[in-house]
Amino acid sequence: MRTAPHGVLDEHGAIWPSIRLAFWRGRLGMRQGVARESDAPVFRDNEPWLEEQFEVLIAVLSVAARGFHTASRELSVDIFRNSAVFQHHYRNWLVGAGLLMMGPNISSNGVLTDEGWAALLMLKATRPNQLIDVEVGYGAIELAGGRAMAEIAHPAIDTRELAFLFEREDIASQACIVLIDRKSTRGRMPMRHTLWSASFGGKHERDRMFAWLCARSDRWDEWGKTAGRGADALSQHLLATYISSVDWREPNGGEHLLALTHVT
After folding, report:
1. 75 near 114, Cβ under 8 Å?
2. Cα–Cα distance for residue pair 44/236, rounded to 1 Å
3. CATH number of this structure's domain 2-145, picked from the four choices 3.40.30, 3.10.20, 1.10.10, 1.10.155
4. For position 136, what pLDDT does the model report?
5. Taking the complete model, does pTM exceed 0.70, yes or no?
C-alpha cells in the first residue's frame, strides 16, 4: 500500500480513507457499515463499534505474539466475555484470513504469520488518540465501544448544569443506572440523593440503555421530577417512552433493552 492524494492506495488500485479501512474492508473483506437509506457503503473509520472491533483484533493478535502457550479458556474469559464458541470462531476466522497459523506443537491460540505481525504493528501504531496510552485488552475494548455514550448525547445540553443526572454504576457487582438529585441537601453537608435505580444482566445491556438515555438528556430534569413522585412512576414512564421510541415494524432497526433484571 502507498499514500494517495485522498487516502491510501491498495495493490488493486482502490483508494481508502485510511490504512485501517483498507485492511478491514479491502484485505479482510469485512462490511464496514451501510447508510440507512441505501445499500451504499459508508466509509468511516471512527465509528465506536469499528474501533471496538479493532481493539478485539489487537488483543487477540497480541496473545498469539506472546511466544508462549496461552490456554484457550484464558482468552475466552479475558477477551470474549466467557464465550468459548465465539473465541474458537474468531481464531478460525483469523486462520482463514492468513493472520494466524495452526499446527502440531503450536499453541491452541495459534501463532502469527508474517502478515499477522504486520497487521498487529499497523493496528497498534494507528490506534486513536484516546487509546494510545491504554493497555491492550478488555479495558481498551470497553473504552472504544463506550465512546458512543458521549457522541450520542444531546448536543445542546450541558449535563453539568442539570438538576438531575443519570449515571452508570456498579453496585455489588451488578451493572446499574442510577438517577441522582444533585440539588438535594441533608443537614449542613450537600449530598447527592439517589431517586431511582435499575440493574441489568450485564454491562452491555446497561450501556445500551444509558446511550438511549443520553440521547434524551434534554428530558432528564423532567424525568427527575417524575421520579419525585416515586421510583415506580419513572420506571413506568421510561418503559412507555422507550416502547414509543422504537419502530416495531422494523424490529431489527432500533435499539433494544436486554436483560433488565431489577428496578427500584
Report:
1. no
2. 38
3. 1.10.10
4. 60
5. no
